[in-house]
Design a protein that fits this description.
The strands form three sheets. A four-stranded antiparallel sheet has the order 1-6-7-5, with helices on one face. A four-stranded antiparallel sheet has the order 2-3-4-8. A two-stranded antiparallel ribbon has the order 9-10. It is built from six helices and ten strands. Helix 3 crosses helix 6 and helix 5 packs across helix 6. With 269 residues, it is α+β, with helices and mostly antiparallel strands.
Length: 269
């Protein structure tokens, strides 16, 4: 699932494959960039910002530009050797192809593709909160942003990228289980908000550099999560059946015993 660590890993793969190379060809398969030709441009770096991926480029006139993409739930970038078969996804999902002498980068089902001057990146990502895996990570600012809406459920607040950038549904569910907090708890009633934020950062950081996301410490199939995607299976702590309900626009998984509702908290539907 493309959460902050997945996008971080993707950015590193693209950086290793493309950074410093001059583009020998490109193919944009989205209307807004269909006539764009970046041939001759140099890729300076590949970076992530929360769930956003930023390919920074230098044009022949030395102007700096950024190719922005968002993976959402189903997007992906793959890097191939020249002549290698593109096996990542069906061909009709390809949105962009970037060619260099040593690699071919293919973007599948990408969202929000845009080419902007690098100096204007904030128009696309400036609304984001502190990046859990970024050099600007500021836990105090993340806590401040979360606490600014005390009536919002903590489950929804953690997914709001304006508070902290990088947490997706998997980490939301796992962090709240490990903290013993019901997803329906208002932010203002969370016992230790700084501890919750710190745990989220540690879990994402632990999965940098690998594609199997684990919060349990195990990389074995079926053992990588405590509650996420484990509806009706026994809680690893108490044996109670894990529950699954909708919270906002996303589903959530939790243990009703290990994550008791706070007094006055509306129960899940």
């Amino acid at each position: 699932m493309p959460e902050g660590d997945t996008v971080w890993n993707t950015a590193r793969v693209l950086h290793r494959a493309l950074a410093g190379a001059r583009l020998t060809g490109c193919d944009f398969r989205v209307p807004q960039l269909a006539t764009t030709d970046l041939t001759g441009w140099t890729i300076s770096e590949s970076a992530s910002r929360g769930k956003h991926l930023l390919l920074r480029l230098a044009a022949p006139d030395e102007a700096r530009w950024t190719l922005h993409s968002h993976l959402r739930m189903d997007g992906a970038w793959r890097a191939y050797a020249p002549g290698e078969r593109w096996s990542g996804r069906p061909a009709h999902l390809i949105r962009v192809v970037l060619r260099t002498p040593g690699a071919v980068a293919v973007g599948y089902h990408l969202h929000e593709l845009a080419l902007v001057p690098t100096a204007e990146e904030d128009t696309l990502v400036g609304h984001l909160g502190p990046d859990l895996l970024g050099p600007d990570w500021d836990p105090a600012e993340a806590v401040h942003r979360l606490a600014a809406h005390p009536e919002q459920t903590i489950g929804e607040a953690l997914l709001d990228q304006r508070n902290l950038a990088g947490v997706g549904n998997l980490y939301k569910c796992e962090v709240l289980f490990l903290r013993g907090v019901s997803p329906w708890t208002p932010v203002g009633a969370v016992p230790d908000l700084p501890g919750t934020v710190a745990l989220a950062q540690r879990l994402l950081a632990a999965n940098r550099g690998r594609w199997t996301q684990s919060t349990t410490g195990s990389l074995h199939r079926g053992q990588t999560s405590y509650v996420y995607s484990r509806r009706a299976q026994p809680c690893r702590r108490c044996g109670t059946a894990i529950r699954k309900e909708e919270l906002g626009e996303r589903v959530t998984y939790w243990c009703p015993v290990c994550q008791p509702e706070q007094p006055g908290t509306p129960p899940p539907a």
